[in-house]
Amino acid sequence: MRIARFSAGDEVGFGLVDTDDEGNQFVSRMKGHPLLGQIQLTGERVKLEDVRLLSPVLPTKVVCIGKNYADHVAEMRHITGEGSEEPVVFLKPSTAVVGPHDPVFHPEVSSRVDYEGELAVVIGRLCREVPLDRVKDVIFGYTVGNDVTARDLQQTDKQWTRAKGFDSFCPLGPWIETGLSLEEAAQLRVTTTVDGEVRQDGNTAQMIHGIPEIIAYVSSFMTLLPGDVILTGTPAGVGPVRVGQRMNVAVERIGELSNPVVARD
Hints:
Residues 1-56 form the Rv2993c-like N-terminal domain. The protein has helices at residues 70-75, 77-80, 135-138, 151-157, 161-165, 182-185, 211-219, and strands spanning 2-8, 11-19, 25-30, 41-47, 52-54, 62-66, 88-92, 97-98, 104-106, 113-115, 117-123, 139-146, 149-150, 170-177, 189-194, 197-203, 229-231, 239-241, 246-251, 255-263. By secondary structure, the chain is mainly β. It folds into two domains: 2-53, Roll (SH3 type barrels), CATH 2.30.30.370; 62-263, Fumarylacetoacetate hydrolase, domain 2, CATH 3.90.850.10. The strands form three sheets. Strands 1, 2, 3, 4, 5, 6, 7, 8, 11, 12, 14 and 17 form a twelve-stranded mixed sheet that branches. Strands 9-20-19-15-16 form a five-stranded mixed sheet, with no helix packed on it. Strands 13-10-18 form a three-stranded antiparallel sheet. A hairpin with a 5-residue loop joins strand 2 (11-19) and strand 3. The chain starts with a strand and ends with a strand.
């Protein structure tokens, strides 16, 4: 299933995204919150083009994994140093989260803002110290993420909180795909384009630390809550974007996330 969070008029809710035989996409409105009970439909169905897609979840925290593709480690060695045997973990605040087509604001204090296209994991239940063989039980689904980064500040600050944490620096969407197994999620193409030009083209099969290892590691020291998001790392090809450009991140079998880069008024 593809579960979207959307607004239509003055109402915000969740719905199932489906496609008819003619290729038209619709959203079937759900009752309540999909993470807090069984999925029930209201019977209301609207065209996808008539709603505004929002970030599919509002996480209490976004847990990010750095240096998780060897080719990305190599290209960023001058900024972030060598790789690590254990996953490199950092956080983005919930205030960084935006949805599809929302603007990403280029801070005045930064001279270089980079895209980082990633597969994102959505946690489905409260969990801690999850063993590897139980990881599949705590995953609600997958979405697309963009770990936007003020690269110059990452280098000068020597830690990543400010560079990764600006408002709008964590686009998520367009929906949550719940139908992928761990094995399928481990073999997905991840691409990023800027104004239609391909900048990143990788595959989750290239990850150094797989999804089970990431969740087991993070949950060994941090309680994860329903709706929390884990960004699993970015492949090589990161680079800057300017005001006026548009970033598109696509993950195979999930969808595409598009956001313009704008100056804050």
